[in-house]
Amino acid sequence: MRSLVVDYQTSSGVVHAVNDVSLEIEPGETVGLVGESGCGKSTLGKAIMHLIPANNGQIVLDGQNITSLSPSAMRPIRSKMQMIFQDPHNSLNPRRTVGNLIAQPLQVAGYDKAAISARVAELMTQVGLPPDAASRYPHEFSGGQRQRIGIARALALKPKLVICDEPVSALDVSIRAQVINLLQDLSDKLGVSYLFISHDLTMVQHIANKLIVMYLGRIVETGSAETIWKHPAHPYTQALLAAAPVADPHVMRSRKRFVLQGDLPSPTDLPEGCAFSTRCPFATDHCRQERPILRPLGENRRTACHYDLVDQIESAASASVSSLSRKAEEKYKVGARA
Ligand SMILES: Nc1ncnc2c1ncn2[C@@H]1O[C@H](COP(=O)(O)OP(=O)(O)O)[C@@H](O)[C@H]1O
Ligand SMILES: [Mg+2]
């Protein structure tokens, strides 16, 4: 996908929901797409799926440019791309049985009856639904199981790419890991690629090989999930990490230094220069005047920041850790003297 642009016309102006975004997803790869609510993640997913039109740019699937295909030309390609939504409740017709729901894409694709029932049974096993689920209705199932139904439907036609838009955000915390593990297993077994969308960086880095961090419609940092997770280079990525829970209280507290300040600028009236400059603790006049382009930083990453902040972010974090441990020491001494 290259230089994708998606605008919405609204009564208060044009929303540049996705602005010049390029990304590549290799076969079998999971790419995580993260950013605050409203940064354009769902819009990007829907534009790739052709659920909404792109204003500019190119979408290539399996070597084929599918950007401006007509709906009828898109039909055979639809089976290669599927989407899983946040709320399985809304995307499953309540009046159809689970067996029926999973069979539907196969019927549309022209499978015969015997092939459909064999495939439905296979899919139900793959996603861990009990065999008797086929004759029951979606409302009889828990949120986690409904999401399994959604996954089975999405996988029915053996897609190459599945776009998972916040697939576990609506689920109980206790069952999120199960659904994530299922998705991961299925990717290992079936070689399917995912674009995994979430506002939660911690969760995404568990499942993704590659990360894309978006802010107000643009990529601010992208690269290997490991590099970005361990040594974030963009202050916005750092801020997302600060918002994520961490087991170690020292790390937790040092990260808190980067908690986001101020409000998200209006998407119809973006700031000059770097869109993040209004909330960035490192912003200079240069940032407020000139928008940084996405540039390589090291081997496995690109970042849209004028500066190399990896070390600065890290030394600020470790300085605050040592000052914390010094304080803890002093406290202990005082306690010992008393
Ligand atoms: N149908 C729409 N019409 C107008 N604006 C929209 C529409 N859908 C989304 N937007 C706006 O586009 C921006 C990106 O939204 P979205 O892609 O849903 O973000 P995310 O999925 O990251 O939360 C937001 O500012 C949102 O308000
Ligand atoms: Mg969304």
Automatic annotation (TrEMBL):
It is a peripheral membrane protein. It is found in: Cell inner membrane. GO terms for molecular function: ATP binding; ATP hydrolysis activity. PROSITE patterns: ABC_TRANSPORTER_1, ABC_TRANSPORTER_2. Belongs to the ABC transporter superfamily. This is Oligopeptide/dipeptide ABC transporter, ATP-binding protein-like. Its main location: membrane. The keyword ATP-binding applies. Transmembrane segments: none annotated. Involved in beta-(1-->2)glucan export. Transmembrane domains (TMD) form a pore in the inner membrane and the ATP-binding domain (NBD) is responsible for energy generation. Residues 1-241 form the ABC transporter domain. Keywords: ATP-binding, Nucleotide-binding, Transport. GO terms for biological process: peptide transport; transmembrane transport. GO terms for cellular component: plasma membrane.
